[in-house]
Amino acid sequence: MTTSSDIRADAAVVETAAVAVAVAETATETATETAADVLPSAAGTPAEAGPTDPDLAVHLLRLGDDALVLGQRLCEWITHAPTVEEDLALSNIALDLIGHARTLFTRCGRLDGSGRTEDDLAFTRSERQFTNALLTELPNGDFAVTVARQLAYTHYAVLYYEALAGCPDAELAAFGARAAKEAAFHRLHADRWTRRLGRGTPESTRRMQRGLERVWPYTRELFEEDDVVRRLAAAGTVPSPAPLHARWEQHVTGVVTGAGLTVPAPAWSAGGGRGGLHTEEFGPLIAELQSVHRQFPGGTW
């Protein structure tokens, strides 16, 4: 006999599969567009010369590093996700993020005057030269830790890219508008999994709460300002992430409490990623990312 619990469980599975398919379709639809954005400076081709802006180059490199590193982390779930639908969803979210990184790296190579390509920036820098927020490099842990990390990052990404879409630089504004739409699907995926785990079994609730506690000390760094960001914001070049923190906190609090969970109140906060200081687990992640390039430097296919 079919019970109401069976019906709710079936509905949850259908809802999760629908979100996974939506994420995959979004990634597929935008893959060509993402590639088109970077074709003027394709992999292995020096970036076109133009006006330089060292501060903006630094800022875009940070955003690109966030996307690349988080995308690489999510790739580790391929063939290891809890369901086939999640394998598909997480790999396609990673595809979106790597697309963001390509666009940002290409622009950075033009703005810093170095002429470096996206491949140069991804594969030839040392660990200390990466400037991603530490949140993005945290190990996946169990599935709940990954969901908690995605919850924190995607809510930030949507807010920041929406703000970037209003900047005066037409190229960056177009990128921000597209990236915000993609990140909104990633946010939906994280929100629904947070609710599903929080409202599930006692074990899933415990794990989801533990995942939040694991990642929350690393969230503040996403909104930090330094002199580079202050100069750019004062000039109206790009928005500062700092004013977005209150909205982010409001949004994620609504999701977390709606899932029957408690928003963590960590007694400490991590930092240093923007300055090239990373966690112990970062080295192996970058070594794997760069392994083929190190074996075959300058190789083309």
β-strand number:
0
How is the quaternary structure best described? single chain
CATH top level assignment: Mainly Alpha
Distance N to C terminus: 58 Å
The topology string of helices and strands comes to HHHHHHHHHHH
Beta-strand proportion: under 5%
The count of domains is 1
The CATH superfamily is identified as Ferritin, core subunit, four-helix bundle
Gyration radius (Cα, Å) is: 19 Å
Tell me about the biggest sheet?
none
Under the CATH scheme, which architecture would be assigned? Up-down Bundle
Could you say which overall geometry the principal axes of the C-alpha atoms support? globular
Structural class estimated from helices and strands: mainly alpha
Under CATH, the topology is which?
Ferritin
Instruction: List low-pLDDT spans.
Output: 1-14, 34-43
